[in-house]
Amino acid sequence: MHLFKYLLLLLPLTLPGQGLDLLIKGGHVIDSRNGLSEVLDIGVLDGRIARVETSISAENAERVIDASGLYVTPGLIDMHVHVFMGHDPAYIANGPTSVMPDGFTFRSGVTTVVDAGSSGWRNIRQFKEQTIDQAKTRVLAFLNIVGNGMTSRFEEQDVADMNPTMTAHCITRMYPEILVGIKAAHYWGDFTQVDRAVEAGKMADVPVMVDFGEHDPPNSIESLFMEHLRPGDMFTHTYSYGPKQRETIVDEEGKLKPFILPAQERGIVFDLGHGGGAFSWRQAVPATEQGFVADVFSTDLHTQSMNRGMKDLTNVLSKMMALGITLEDAIHRATWAPAQVIDREELGHLSIGAEADIAIFGLREGDFGFLDVRGKRVSGSQKLETELTLRAGRVVWDLNGLAAEDYSND
Question: Over the stretch 25-48, which tens digit does the pLDDT of each residue have?
Fold first, then answer.
């Protein structure tokens, strides 16, 4: 048994007779950081995990949730979303393609999101005041290397607005508690945008996420992985298929390219980043069959993805489970794995003292269909459904009233 697991079970923050604000009983706990995949009780006090034990008495608990037959996990971390919603005639930055986070997070077990470069150093202040400060969801962000962020594809080509110094200073001097990395995306040219982002990443000591599409002809992803990015930097839209503008990880004969696994071993982080046009079964199926799986499972949430094949993060996890990924592994790639990638290791686990961001899922059995971005279907026999979500110990989503008292005329 993992040493940390022993510490977790033996060092509660409360004594057996002390009260708890909330007690989750009988759920199957999955927590990859602490090596947990078994039935346990979880006690919450003052918004934090207070006890994790095989059996905790309900006698002194203010509220008890019966999670028998359900799965209890850390709140999910969606490492790729766009939530800089606004009313400018723009694309993502303060535009209608972005969404307000609280409307789409808690119902899918997500308690933390990372906005993937919607804003740059010129408009991060507006994004913070308008969205981040208003949300109950924890909102972190990658800062776009383009100062104006994702205003439109046209503005994203402005090399003069790709300022590594201002980008790095914004991260280190203005909002280090919010900004976790740098984003390079949608560039039509060579490696200039990527190199400027990496330069800023070195200055600020943060990772870079690259959306490497839309080059005509496509730039070499082998060169990207082995020559331009550093270990810890991210390649998003891993399973995208658009060979005329984006080199794919699987070739036209269905073979995983020989440099993909070495790149992953080198430390390049592969982000699923489903989106509205960036997840294809013709990439995901053969890649998985040949032993390659994206390091982080994320949605690329926005209005053009949520009503199509992506839907939400639980659906993304379920569709990867249809390819043979275990439930434990799927949860890991949406909790502890992204927490490590963005260097926020206080998140993504259920350790004693951690903020009580918790998700409770049902695992439905049946005949389900999962779509890619081209409407192609893969069948699966299991599907996750979010029953309840806690954010800092408070119930923020309760599908069937697990945390509620029964109605009475009294």
Answer: 999 999 999 999 999 999 999 999
CA distance 111 to 365: 25
d(CA 300, CA 288): 20
Q: CB within 8 A of 380, min separation 6: which ones? A: 318, 319, 321, 322, 368, 369, 370
Give Dmax (Cα) for the chain. Answer: 72
Q: With beta carbons less than 8 A apart as the criterion, state whether 128 and 86 touch.
A: no
- Do residues 149 and 122 touch, judged by C-beta distance below 8 A? yes
Burial of 154 (0-12, 13-18, 19+ CB in 10 A): exposed
Q: b/e for 177-206, b at 16 or more Cβ within 10 A? A: ebbbbbbbbbbeeebebbbbbbbbbebbeb
Tell me the Ramachandran region of residue 401: left when phi exceeds 0, alpha when psi lies from -120 to 50, beta otherwise.
Answer: left
pTM above 0.85, yes or no: yes
Q: Are strands 358-371 and 71-74 parallel, antiparallel or unpaired?
A: antiparallel
Question: Helices (H) and strands (E) in the chain — how many of each?
Answer: 10, 15
Number of Cβ within a 10 Å radius of residue 355? 20
Q: Which two tokens stand for residue 294?
A: 């994206």
Beta bridge partners of 112: 77, 138
The tokens describing 278, both together, are 């960036």
pLDDT digits (tens, 9 = 90+) for 359-400: 999 999 999 999 999 999 999 999 999 999 999 999 999 999
Tell which residue, 293, 334, 323, has the closest CA to residue 105: 334
350 touches 362 (CB < 8 A)? no
Domains and CATH numbers, the chain: 3-73+353-398 (2.30.40.10), 76-341 (3.20.20.140)
Structure tokens at 384: 């996750």
Q: What is the CA radius of gyration of the chain?
A: 21
DSSP label at residue 170: I
User: What secondary structure, in 3-state letters, does 71-140 show?
Assistant: EEEECEEEEEECCCECCCCCCCCCECCCCCHHHCCHHHCEEEEEEECCCCCCCHHHHHHHCHHHCCCEEE
Q: Who contacts 9 (Cβ-Cβ below 8 Å, separation ≥6)?
A: 52, 53, 54
Q: How far apart are CA 124 and CA 274, in angstroms?
A: 24
